[in-house]
Specification:
binds zinc ion
Length: 133
């Protein structure tokens, strides 16, 4: 598997509009786009930083995974996404190595990316997303 770079860091927030003000007004980043990923019950707001982005995640549903994350741990870093060259190849390799996955097959993420999550039990508590764009 070839990891190219850190694609984005996902941060769970209660409100993209409210939290985004810090990243725009204080840190001088730019909110590029807000997109809803209905399947994940989440709105995503992307703030590009050169080759990477911050992804603010706001739940659209009190039962969604991001809402549950905030209920359990409060706002904060929820996942780290590595950009891979070929996600099918990466998943095949991880399965061969017996790594526990949340997604056995890639699914559709924000921006038309193909994504898959590795189980945090394998990654020392960090939810890792692989993404191919
Ligand atoms: Zn992500």
């Amino acid at each position: 598997m070839k990891i190219k770079h850190i694609d984005h860091i996902g941060i769970a927030v209660k409100s993209i509009e409210e939290a985004g003000r810090f990243f725009t007004d204080v840190l001088g980043l730019r909110l590029e786009k807000v997109e809803t990923v209905a399947e994940q019950k989440v709105n995503t707001g992307f703030f590009p930083i050169t080759d990477s982005e911050l992804e603010l995640l706001e739940s659209t549903d009190p039962d969604g995974p991001v809402a549950k994350f905030i209920d359990a741990r409060g706002e904060g870093v929820q996942h780290i996404a590595f950009r891979v060259e070929d996600i099918d190849d990466a998943l095949r390799e991880l399965k061969e190595k017996g790594v526990r996955l949340i997604d056995q097959e890639p699914r559709k993420g924000a921006g038309g990316a193909r994504i898959a999550f590795i189980h945090p039990k394998e990654t020392h508590g960090v939810l890792v997303e692989l993404c191919e764009k």
